[in-house]
Amino acid sequence: KKSEDSGAMAKPDDHPKSVHHATKWSEDVENFYRFQQAGYRDEVEYKQVKQVDMVERWPETGFVKKLQRRDNTFYYYDKQRECEDKEVHKVKVYKY
After folding, report:
1. 8: CB partners within 8 A, 6+ apart
2. Residue pLDDT, tens place only, 32-68
3. Where are the beta strands (DSSP E) in the chain?
4. Left, alpha or beta for 62 (phi > 0: left; psi -120 to 50: alpha)?
5. Cα(33)–Cα(91) distance, rounded to whole angstroms?
6. How confident is the model at residue 15 (pLDDT cuts 50, 70, 90)?
7. Do 80 and 24 meet the contact criterion of CB atoms below 8 Å apart?
8. Are the C-beta atoms of 20 and 92 separated by less than 8 Å?
9. Fewest C-beta atoms under 10 Å: which of 7, 14, 24, 69?
10. What is the pTM of this model?
């Protein structure tokens, strides 16, 4: 399932209309955390920069599995939650 927060609905040339910091963990916050760790705003920006249609995800959880940073090194993520509660407030949630 995709929620509006995931950025999946946005067209490739869209820019976020608003941004706020996450207050509690969710699946969307987990994926924003993973994109932001790798140096991207969100899935929309990642797809624009890397020119890819799909992002590798864990089928069990839907979390992002692997991302390529701008310097072409890879980040590999676990099936389980990686964004700890103390990190949640640092995650930026973009709305389109």
Report:
1. 2, 43
2. 999 999 999 999 999 999 999 999 999 999 999 999 9
3. 18-21, 66-68, 74-76, 92-95
4. left
5. 6
6. confident
7. no
8. yes
9. 24
10. 0.85
